[in-house]
Design a protein that fits this description.
This protein has 438 residues and is α+β, with helices and mostly antiparallel strands. The chain contains 7 helices and 20 strands. The chain has helices spanning 4-30, 102-149, 157-204, 253-256, 333-337, 350-358, 410-419, and strands at 36-40, 42-58, 61-66, 70-75, 89-90, 95-99, 206-208, 213-218, 225-226, 233-239, 244-252, 264-269, 272-284, 289-291, 294-304, 315-332, 364-371, 374-385, 389-395, 402-407. The strands form 4 sheets. Strands 2-11-15-13-12-16 form a 6-stranded antiparallel barrel. A 4-stranded antiparallel sheet has the order 3-10-8-5, with no helix packed on it. Strands 7-6-4-9 form a 4-stranded antiparallel sheet. A hairpin with a 2-residue loop joins strand 12 (264-269) and strand 13 (272-284).
């Protein structure tokens, strides 16, 4: 009995080991085929869009400049009764700043004096005309009398000649005085023009806001001298209405043909990464620019800024929404590119595999659906593609079906199988630690 007991134990151990080896062989054969990566068919929202980068701009900017040269003497108060500065709210007609007006006021007074002098010259010319006309009337009477008496020898020839000369001189004097009047009137017109110019220059020393808005840039300081040459010196930049903003987007020529006024737009800014702003295409500018042989067009996107979050000149990441689908059946684009190995699928699907290889483009495709340990083909019609997912318009697919998108990593499978290996398989002996302290 003592001898039989060890023999029985050895036989039992050998039977267990043999069963374990058989189990491992069967499992290895079962896992010899390919392991597929699958993704379920889902319902999702798809958006086809064009991405670009732009800059947030005020809808209307007014550049307020100085039309005269001079030193800035003061800034006035804004709507909050504070000195005009960056961010100051202003109203149309409100005084923003003042330029030293001493010289311009003197020029206006001088022009006013010239105007008064011209008016006096006109009065003098008119009086001279009246006086010369009176003398002409007397000379005409004397000349008329001389013409009657001379044929009767009742007047000396010298007197006759004298009356004639006086009459001709009186006529000439009237003409001279009338010319003087015309000259005086011309001088008055010139003096009035000079006066108006001097008065306007004096008014230009007071810088006012032409619109209601907000000062987004103040470009001068008190004591600074502004010089107005061919163009007005810029002093303030005023945004007319910050509740209406625009995004100026630079769009590549390859995409510009698909954009139309009114097209919906979504964009984000780094200042508010969790917010999505909406707008629409307002205008496509036709003055294209070229940089490094790349032609781009500026597209104006109008957006509402009632919240006041959008600030001028923020960088915007823009998406022009070309098409949009809500809650449609969709599959990942990787599934459209997958083709199984002919040896891994039943022979009855080989014709479908050849057809799928020829249908790599177009709206009709063949997808591969997981079916047990293998796959089966499904012909589908495709819709919108957003670059990641594609809409399924028709085909024998339903939500939840597992679509094959690739082959799973063999390394991962081996690792996973090893982790759940049979407890009957003997493990290799542990490596001896030769560095163990004696």
């Amino acid at each position: 009995m003592k001898i039989l007991k060890p023999v029985i134990l050895v036989v039992a151990a050998a039977a267990v080991a043999g069963g374990g080896w058989f189990w491992y062989s069967v499992r290895a054969k079962a896992s010899a085929g390919p392991h597929y990566s699958t993704t379920p068919v889902v319902r999702s929202d798809l958006v086809k869009s064009i991405s670009a980068t732009g800059t947030v701009e005020p809808e209307e900017l007014v550049n307020v400049g100085a039309q005269v040269s001079g030193k800035i003497t003061a800034f006035e108060k804004d709507s909050n009764n504070e000195e005009v500065d960056y961010g100051s709210p202003v109203k149309a007609g409100m005084v923003l700043a003042r330029i030293d007006d001493l010289v311009y006021e003197a020029e206006m007074r001088e022009a006013e004096a010239q105007k008064l002098k011209a008016e006096a010259a006109i009065l003098s010319s008119k009086a001279n005309i009246e006086y010369s006309k009176a003398k002409l009337e007397l000379a005409a009477s004397n000349w008329e009398r001389a013409q009657r008496l001379m044929p009767q020898n009742a007047m000396a020839k010298i007197d006759y000649d004298s009356y004639k000369a006086e009459y001709d001189a009186a006529k000439a004097t009237v003409s001279i005085n009338e010319a003087s009047l015309a000259e005086a009137e011309a001088s008055l017109a010139s003096a009035v023009a000079s006066y108006d110019k001097a008065k306007r220059n004096l008014e230009y020393c007071t810088i006012t806001s032409p619109v209601d808005g907000v000062v987004i840039d103040r470009r001068v300081s008190i004591g600074q001298t502004v010089v107005s040459n061919m163009s007005a010196s810029s002093m303030f930049l005023i945004a007319k209405d910050l509740k209406r903003m625009q995004v100026w987007v630079s769009v590549n020529e390859a995409d510009i043909g698909t954009l139309k006024p009114g097209m919906p737009v979504e964009f984000s800014v780094d200042a508010f990464p969790n917010d999505t702003f909406v707008g629409s295409v307002h205008k496509i500018r036709l003055n294209a620019t070229m940089s490094q042989n790349v032609v781009t067009y500026v597209v104006e996107v109008a957006t509402d800024n009632s919240s006041g979050k959008l600030l001028p000149y923020l960088t915007a990441n823009v998406k022009f929404i070309q098409e949009e689908r809500k809650g449609v059946l969709s599959v990942p684009n990787a599934a459209l590119r997958f083709l199984p190995d002919a040896s891994a699928i039943p022979e009855k699907y080989h014709d479908e595999l050849a057809k799928a290889a020829a249908m790599r483009t177009g709206k009709e495709r063949i997808l591969w659906v997981a079916s047990g340990n293998s796959v089966r083909p499904v012909t589908v019609k495709l819709g919108l593609n957003d670059g990641v997912m594609t809409e399924i318009l028709s085909g024998d697919l339903k939500e939840g079906d597992e679509i094959v998108s690739g082959i799973a990593s063999t390394q991962a499978i081996t690792s996973k199988s090893g982790a759940s290996g049979s407890p009957f398989i003997p493990k290799p002996p542990a490596r001896r630690n030769n560095n163990k302290k004696k």
